[in-house]
């Protein structure tokens, strides 16, 4: 019921309806999806049965005849999110390239440290200093960046569950 939407959500629905003549119900669905996505990193919901905080999420399936405007309205409303997603993907590519270079250097240093430990032991030294360096080096191992995934489109339920 659109009359229950706050003005900040109902105004875009009515404006888009006037511009595109797409059913109000379909637009309400997309606007709520966008609002949920926009708030996800800002709001946590504590579920009463688990007392565990989780991001706010709304999952919608839009079922309408072909040509009803599902893709049209989704693309208009979701464009800022698609732009942000694209920006995040470009940043990820850069971060991944940095990580790949850093991990190669880390691996070379790690092999050298292990060789140094072997040499120390072969020479009947305790290897304590070399072991400490290996531990320190392990703590400095680069962390691989996570690929961003903020939007799921045309996704099977099993894919949504696995993330």
Automatic annotation (TrEMBL):
Pfam families: DUF3987. InterPro entries: DUF3987. This is DUF3987 domain-containing protein. The lineage of its organism: Bacteria, Pseudomonadati, Pseudomonadota, Gammaproteobacteria, Enterobacterales.
